[in-house]
Amino acid sequence: MKIYPFALAALMLMSVSCTKQQSMGIQTENLDTTAIPQNDFYQYACGGWMQNHPLTDEYARFGTFDQLGLKNLEQVNGLIQDLATVQHTHGTIEQKIGDLYNLAMDSARRNEEGIRPIIKSVEALDTITDRAQLSEVLGHAMEFGLWNMYVDADAMNSSMNILNESQGGYALGQKDYYFDQDEHTKMIRAEYLKHIENVFSLYGYIDGDLAAKIVLRLETRLAGAAFSNVELRDPIANYNKMTVDSLQRLVPQVDWKVYFDAIGIDPQVLSVGQIRHLQEAGKMLAEESLEDLKTLFCWQILSGASSYLTDDFFNENFNFYGKILSGKQQPSPRWKRATGIVNSMLGEAVGQMYVKKYFPEENKARMLALVKNLQASLGDRISALEWMSDATKAKALEKLGTFTVKIGYPDKWRDYSALDIDPSLSYYENIQRAVKFEENYSLSFLNKPVDKTRWYMTPQTVNAYYNPSSNEICFPAGILQYPFFDMSADDAFNYGAIGVVIGHEMTHGFDDQGCQFDKDGNLNNWWTEEDKKRFDERTRVMKEYFDGIEVAPGVHANGAFTLGENIADHGGLQVAYHALMMSENAKPEGKRLTEKDGFTPAQRFFLAYANVWANNIRPEEILQRTKSDPHSLGRWRVNGALPHIDAWYEAWNVDESSPLYLAPDKRASIW
User: How far apart are CA 258 and CA 137, in angstroms?
Assistant: First the structure.
């Protein structure tokens, strides 16, 4: 996982506990020993796990990430319920957590309230009678809009925060859903149209069919001007710094001073992410009828509120986004959804309490040692690169040496005192308050120096990230447990699991996007022309290889879209394996790892790596993730990544007879 200035993203799951546990390491029940590892390593390493964890109706995909998250979610929920069953003084963090959870659990109250919580927001649209009002209305809007605004580090001056704009306004999220002509995507569009009509009907619209057609037409217009997922991966193309006066000339249909005054900010400069999309949004404001624009805004209000209203709204929302789009058969139990909301809206407050109880400090110490070893390993590999000049190597090593490492939890915690959770108000109204609080928190950084201590994930998150603007790697407490990290397991296991995760995040600093940022986090070329050309040639091998993978009948992986994550997996494997070998070679002969449970240390390394990606997944989810997820599917993070790793061939005696075999000159060799 990486975080770029134009998109803060999280990959997996929330909630954590990091209790001590007995030694695990490689679990033989996770294997499918009927499979031949040289022919299908994923099936061999993960087949037992997959058989023992069939998909239940609430999941579109269930893997080891989800298994860990589920275990932790149950423990987190128990602690939240302890707060929710006691009355606390209003304004305390305990009151906010407990009351928000209780509001999320109270479906009977939501059913009784019906559409009352959103009437005010919808009826406010009736006050728009003149196109000149739109600039102010969009500035005030929290529930709807045609683009996004957020504050983050200036990509070319990473020590300062500026306002950033990015494309938005279309609820399917992925441009491809509006234009692809394969039968599955056409079915999705048809069902989406029905979904829009159904939601309008639940609110009481008489002409829901007409409203749905208007919404789809306007969303398609916005999506048509949007960047593709591949275009969004170009940091330079998505950085267009300008003054507000320049923005006014670029998109004259919006009075930007009025717009920013309505938000309550005074940006000195801003970066427009996707110019053609913003220009198209401006043209829409001038060309589309007010009634059609208000229909789109009404849809955005209703769609955004559906999860916080009656069971009918929730079920309709789940039917499309859960069943049709992802293949789920039933929603997660209400307690899981309620716990997730508390984690989402009060994440660091929850994290602060749970870290105290569940995160052993010795985990942090061992992680710091692992990170240090991985940094040394990557440094060795950079120094040994034959294709890179000494000048570029020096810059790369300088960048590696200035990595900031964050492990477990932040040194300072967020203040939630300004967020008022009021149980006398509806669930939806409290969600609006929480969203507005988060918006104000983001805007509070505008025109200020970047806070290097800020975390972009909560401690209970099961994930990790690299942030190029701060040149930092972060490993929250949530991921520092089995199957990623086991204090009682040997180094072969931990280097294959958490070691590759560490190496993965480090490599993001040198993938096709991260390599464009310097040691200070600025978008700045530090490569010689010839070295960058050679780098691009080597990454092209990875792109073309993944383009050739058929993930479903007639559907191929998108090698350009997944390139950064595939480079990071490749680098993580190379760096972690090299670090393990360095560690072993530094030990006296009698202290080195030996065969265990029938597997050599090298074999255990690759089994541990593969098991991290064990999962079962529905056909619908495969198609959705292929369009929307920059990570390759779990199977191909194993069977697609390992054929490029020479050490895997040696560990498992893979030869030309294997269907996974790649000739040495066909293998990617980057970091």
Answer: 9
